[in-house]
Design brief:
Immunoglobulin-like, alpha+beta
Length: about 600
C-alpha cells in the first residue's frame, strides 16, 4: 500500500509540474529587456549603449574598415579609376552585410552600433549611386569626343543635356553625404575609431563635384559655339509651372514650336535625360503635357524637349521637395493562427498615399511587404512563434519624394495554446498537442516507477567511496584508476566533492572514463570557489564560466583560465563524448591555472 501511495504521489506531482511547464513553455522569457526594471542581478541588453567583451573583437574591426573604405572608393572615383572603385564598392557591400548580420544576430537594436549601421547603409546607397553617375559621366566624355569629330550638333546637344542632369544629381548626392559626416563621426568617436579617412572622403567628394561642374560648363559653352548648333528649322520653347512641388503635385509642361510647318509636329519631352512622353503640337505649334510628381527622388530635375526635326529646346528644370508623412499601425489582431497588421499611410495633412510599398517589421529583423490601397490603407498577415515579439510598420524609399516614417511599436506575447481557431471561428482541441501531453505524462509515470524500483538496489550498493590518495598494488594497477566495465561497485559510487585543488586532479583522473561530464564540472567548481575567495567575489555560485573569466581578466592566471574555460565549454556543452586530447588539455589547463593561483596568492601575501 505504501508503494502505491508513493507511485500515486509521484504521478500527481509529475502532472502538476508538466502543467506548469506547459503554461509557460510558449513564453520562455525571464524578463522583457525593453520594459523591466534594472536590478543588481542582471544586465539589461536593451540598455547597453556600447559594445563590449567578445562582441567588440568582432565588431570594431569591421566598423573601422567601414570608415576607411569610403575614403579609398571616393579617391579612386576622383582619379577616374573605375576598375579599382568597382572593387572598393564590392568590398564595401560585403562589409555592410557583415555588420548587418552581426547587429541582427547579437540583437543590438537600439544601441549606438545600430545607429552606426544605419548611417553606413545610407552611405553605401549614396556612394553606389555616385559610382553609377560618375561612370555615365565618363561615358559622355567619350561620346563627346566622337561626335565632335563628326560635327553633329544634335547628338552633342543630347550629351550636354544629359550631362546637366548628371551634374545636378552628383551635387545632390554630395549634399546628402555631407549631412552624414557629423553624426557618424560623433558615434565613431565613442568607440575610439579613427575617422581620418572618412573625413578625407568628404573633401575628395567635393572635388568630384567641382570637376563635374567644370566639365559640364565647358561642354555647354562649346556646344553654343559650334557652327550649325542653331537650327534652321525653327525654335522650340519650353516652360514648367509650377517650378517646384511635392508628392502628387501636377506640373504643366508647355511650349511653342515656331518656324515653317510646325503644326502637328511630334515633340518628345525628356525628364532627367529619359524620354517621358511624345506630344503632337496643334496647328499653331503649341504643345502641353501634365506630369504628376511621384516616382522620382527629391531634388533638382532637368527638363527639355526635342522636335522631330532634331530641334532642341533650352534646358529648364523643377525642384521636388519631400512630403512629410504619417504612418499608423493598429493593434494587431489574431486571425487563423496569424496576426493581421493594418493601418494607414498618409501625408501629414491627411491625404492618402496610394499604391505605395511599405514594410511590417517583426523583432526589427523580419520584413513583410505591404502596399497601400486607393485610400492609403494597408494590411499584412504576420506569423509569430510563441514568445514575446515587437511589430512596427516602416517606410523608407529614397527613390520617392516622401520622408521616412515609422509607426508606433506593439509588443505581443504569443502563448502556446492547446486550442486552435478553425476557419469558421469556432475553437477545437488540437489532437496533436493533446497526444503529446498524454505521451509526456505516460513517460513520466513510467520513469518514476523505474526510478523507485532501482533506487532501493542502488542504495544498498553505494557504500564504497573513492579514496583521496593513490595506492599502487603489486600488480601495478592504480587503485584510483577507472573501474572495469563490470565493476558495479565503483561505477555506482557517488561523485565526491572537490574540496581542494590537491585531490581534484586525483579524482578527475579516476572519473575521466567513468563520468567525465561531472568530473569536468567538478574541476570548474573547484576553480570558481578558489578564485572567488581570492578575488572576494559575491554570489560566486551563480557565476557562469565566461563571467568568471571576465572577472579574472586583470590577473596573472587569466590566460590559463581562459584556456580551461574554452576546453570546458567544449567538453560540457558539445553533447558528444570528448576526445582524449580534450580530456588531457582540460586537466593540463586546470593544473596551470591552479599553479598561477598559488603564485598570485604568494605575491599578495
Amino acid at each position: 500500500m505504501k508503494r502505491i501511495r508513493s507511485l500515486a504521489a509521484v504521478a500527481v506531482l509529475s502532472i502538476v509540474i508538466l502543467f506548469l511547464i506547459a503554461s509557460h513553455a510558449g513564453t520562455p522569457v525571464l524578463y522583457n529587456p525593453e520594459s523591466d526594471a534594472v536590478t543588481p542581478y542582471h544586465t539589461n541588453p536593451a540598455a547597453l549603449e556600447k559594445v563590449s567583451g567578445d562582441n567588440a573583437e568582432r565588431l570594431l574591426p569591421i566598423m573601422s574598415d567601414l570608415l576607411n573604405t569610403p575614403g579609398t572608393l571616393v579617391l579612386n572615383l576622383k582619379y577616374n579609376d573605375l576598375d579599382l572603385a568597382s572593387k572598393d564598392l564590392a568590398k564595401y557591400r560585403e562589409l555592410t552585410r557583415s555588420i548587418d548580420n552581426l547587429v541582427i544576430n547579437l540583437d543590438m537594436s537600439g544601441t549606438e552600433v545600430e545607429q552606426f549601421q544605419k548611417m553606413n547603409q545610407k552611405n553605401l546607397q549614396i556612394l553606389s549611386e555616385l559610382f553609377n553617375e560618375t561612370s555615365r559621366f565618363e561615358e559622355l566624355r567619350t561620346l563627346e569626343i566622337r561626335y565632335k569629330d563628326e560635327n553633329d550638333p544634335a547628338i552633342l546637344t543630347s550629351i550636354t543635356y544629359e550631362g546637366q542632369s548628371l551634374r545636378n544629381r552628383v551635387r545632390q548626392l554630395y549634399n546628402e553625404y555631407q549631412l552624414q559626416e557629423e553624426p557618424l563621426v560623433e558615434v565613431s568617436s565613442d568607440f575610439e575609431l579613427n575617422t581620418t579617412h572618412y573625413e578625407e572622403s568628404q573633401t575628395d567628394f567635393a572635388e568630384i563635384v567641382r570637376t563635374v561642374e567644370q566639365v559640364q560648363t565647358q561642354r555647354t559653352n562649346e556646344l553654343q559655339s559650334l557652327p550649325g548648333s542653331a537650327s534652321n528649322h525653327g525654335t522650340l520653347g519650353i516652360s514648367v509651372t509650377p517650378s517646384e512641388g511635392i508628392y502628387n503635385t501636377v506640373l504643366m509642361i508647355s511650349g511653342l514650336y515656331s518656324g515653317a510647318d510646325t503644326g502637328h509636329t511630334q515633340v518628345e519631352i525628356f525628364i532627367d535625360s529619359e524620354k517621358e512622353a511624345e506630344i503632337i503640337t496643334d496647328l499653331n505649334g503649341y504643345y502641353q503635357y501634365s506630369y504628376t510628381l511621384r516616382d522620382m527622388p527629391e531634388g533638382l530635375h532637368t527638363l527639355f524637349a526635342v522636335a522631330e526635326t532634331s530641334v532642341y529646346s533650352d534646358i529648364t528644370g523643377f525642384n521636388v521637395k519631400p512630403l512629410d508623412t504619417k504612418l499608423t499601425l493598429l493593434p494587431p489582431e489574431r486571425s487563423g493562427g496569424k496576426y493581421i497588421c493594418s493601418g494607414s499611410f498618409t501625408g501629414v495633412s491627411g491625404e492618402p498615399l496610394t499604391n505605395t510599398a511599405l514594410q511590417v517589421v517583426t523583432d526589427k529583423k523580419i520584413r513583410i511587404n505591404a502596399v497601400t490601397d486607393g485610400k492609403g490603407n494597408y494590411s499584412a498577415p504576420v506569423a509569430l512563434t510563441p514568445g514575446i515579439h515587437t511589430i512596427q510598420a516602416v517606410f523608407q524609399n529614397r527613390l520617392l519624394p516622401l520622408s521616412p516614417a515609422e509607426s508606433e511599436i506593439y509588443t505581443i506575447n504569443v502563448t502556446r495554446s492547446t486550442e486552435l481557431l478553425t476557419p469558421d471561428g469556432s475553437s477545437d482541441t488540437d489532437p496533436v498537442t493533446l497526444l503529446i501531453v498524454v505521451v509526456i505524462i505516460g513517460a513520466s509515470v513510467a520513469a518514476s516507477v523505474f526510478y523507485l524500483r532501482r533506487r532501493k538496489g542502488l542504495q544498498d550498493r553505494r557504500t564504497t567511496r573513492i579514496p583521496e590518495t593513490r595506492d599502487t598494488s603489486d600488480t601495478g594497477r592504480d587503485s584510483s584508476a577507472p573501474a572495469a566495465a563490470g565493476d558495479e561497485e565503483s561505477r555506482d559510487a557517488p561523485l565526491p566533492a572537490f574540496e581542494d585543488q590537491e585531490n581534484a586532479l586525483d579524482i578527475f583522473e579516476h572519473l575521466k572514463t567513468h563520468d567525465f561530464m561531472a568530473a569536468a564540472h567538478g574541476l570548474f567548481v573547484t576553480l570558481r570557489n578558489n578564485i572567488s575567495v581570492r578575488l572576494s567575489l559575491e554570489h560566486s555560485e551563480s557565476l557562469t564560466p565566461r563571467e568568471l573569466c571576465t572577472k579574472s581578466r586583470d590577473f596573472s592566471f587569466y590566460s590559463n583560465l581562459k584556456r580551461f574555460i574554452r576546453r570546458y565549454e567544449i567538453v560540457r556543452y558539445s553533447g558528444t563524448l570528448p576526445s582524449a586530447d580534450d580530456r588531457d588539455e582540460l586537466g593540463s589547463a586546470f593544473s596551470a591555472t591552479s599553479g598561477d593561483l598559488e603564485d598570485e596568492h604568494e605575491k599578495s601575501g
